Structure formats: C-alpha cells, structure tokens
Amino acid sequence: MPSDEIIISEKKFTEFLSARYSRTTTNTYLTLFKAYAKHLTTQSAINDFNKGTLRMGKNLNKDKGYREREIEGSNPCHKGFLKSYIECFKLPFQIIKSRMKKGKQQTKIKYLEKKQIDQLINNIEDEWISILVRLMFETGLRLRELINTKVKNINLNERTISGIGKNGKQFITKFSPKSRTLLQKYLQQNKREHPFHYNNNPQEDHPRRFWYYLKKAGKLLNIENLHPHMIRHSLGHHLRADKKFDLQQIKTKLRHSQLETTSIYTTADNTEVDNKIDQEVFEK
Q1: What is the pTM (predicted TM-score) of this model?
Q2: Are 204 and 198 in contact (CB under 8 A)?
Q3: What is the pLDDT of residues 167-206, one digit of tens each?
Q4: Among candidate residues 266, 233, 230, the one with its CA nearest the CA of residue 248
C-alpha cells in the first residue's frame, strides 16, 4: 500500500492532467481514474493493469463468486493513464515492460516541406494561426506547451519562451529576430495572461480550436488532414534533411528523452529519394 501521507485526490489528478493534456485526454484518464484508482494500490495490481489482466469485483474470492471485470491489454491509453497516475501522486510503483519483444515497425512521419510551412505562415489571414505556426516551427514546442504559455514566460529581449513541458520538464527555447518583431506587436494587441489562447473563455478548448482553423487553412493550400504535430515533425525533418543537423542536436532541440525517438528523422520517404536521384543523378 502507498504511504498514509499519499492522498489520492481526483481534484489533484484533474489539475495535473489539465496542465499537460488536451480536454479529451484529461476526460479519458479521469474516467479510468474513477474506475480503477481504488484498486491500484499494490505493485501487483499495477502489473496486472499494465498487462490487461486486472480483475475487479465486489468479492475477490473466486470460490464465493463475484462480478468480474477485465480490462484490455496493450492499450496505449491505459498505459498513458497509468504513467500519469504514478507520476502525479509520486507512488512507489514501477511500470514493468513486457519481456516479449515485438518486431520493429518502420515509422513514417508526416511532415511539411519548409516551403509549405512558409506558405502557411504567409498566406493565413488569421494572425493567431499564423503566429502560432511560426513559433511552433521555430521553437519545436508542442501545441499545448505553446498555447498555454503565459506572457511572463516570454522574453522578447532574449527571444525565448520558457515553461513546463511534457512529463513536467522545464524548457526554454528561442525564436527568430523576425518573430520577435511580430510577437511584440501581437502581445500589444492581446494583453492577457495567456496571449496564445483564442479568447479569455476558461472553458474554451484552445488547442482544438487551433487545430480546426489550421486544418481549414491547409485545405486552401491543398494540404489535406493537416495536424498541429506535423509542424513539429516538419522542424525535425528540416533540421535533418535541409540543415544537416545531427541526431543529438535535433534531440536537444525537440527535447526528446531518448535518441531512438529522434531517429525517425533518418527514415527517408521513397518519393523524396526518387526525386533527389532524378534531379542530382539523372539530371532531369
């Protein structure tokens, strides 16, 4: 059992999730919290939950019979909840990885070329969308990290944005001199604690609103299914393919915890290779 000093509070968990995840993810994790938290009190229960074999009922004695409930195994959502649950309450448990190794699947990232990013920035009439795309591409910040930035964490003189990112890690990242000029004007027009929120409505799902308008802007430029995280991938690809940054440098910029995550930017698209051969080898 966890220490008596550890208080498992739904309010605390809600605050923890809201600062890190979207409203949809927060609600999903809270649903799991309400259903399972009272049972996740031992390492054994944590292991069973992680493997998808946690069984619950009014009476845990099978001989007497009980209503049984079994969760599905290998569910990324459940694993994400479990990680957040342990981290939030600083519980003395571990998530034990399965010894069964699955064959590695090649990850094909979705990204935009630099010229497409420039098109987005220069052709979007909505200043809110344009400035967010520009800053996401220059800083590599995740959407929620940028959109929840407070005005006090923006340093125009140093050209930096600081804050708390994924897994509660602090970050500080730079933007360009041109963005400083544009951002200074933007901040003068949007004088609020969270300048990148769509409005002052605390109930507004600002990331979802951004995604909606970004997707519409992409369609006008013939970019289908544009997703905010593609901007972050676009920076990683640009640094690797166009600017020849090594993986360690990209890892530092994107704040990946493992170099293995950064290695996705070494995976070249077949079309990209064919085009390069046409232009530089076959002299098309």
Answers
A1: 0.66
A2: yes
A3: 788 999 999 999 999 999 999 999 999 999 999 887 889 9
A4: 266
Supply 93's token pair: 């448990």
* CA-based nearest residue to 108, from 282, 279, 265, 214: 265
CA distance 113 to 24: 30
Count Cα atoms within 13 angstroms, Cβ side, for 227.
9
Cα(253)–Cα(64) distance, rounded to whole angstroms?
58
Contact 2, 89 (CB under 8 A): yes
Q: What is the pLDDT of residues 11-47, one digit of tens each?
A: 999 988 888 888 888 888 999 999 888 888 889 888 8
Domains and CATH numbers, the chain: 10-89 (no CATH), 114-268 (1.10.443.10)
**Residue type at 98 in one-letter notation:** S
Tokens of 41: 């009190």
Residue of 122, 80, 109 whose CA lies nearest to 231: 109
- The alpha-helical segments, DSSP class H, found in 163-228 are 177-189, 206-220
The one-letter amino acid code at 214 reads: L
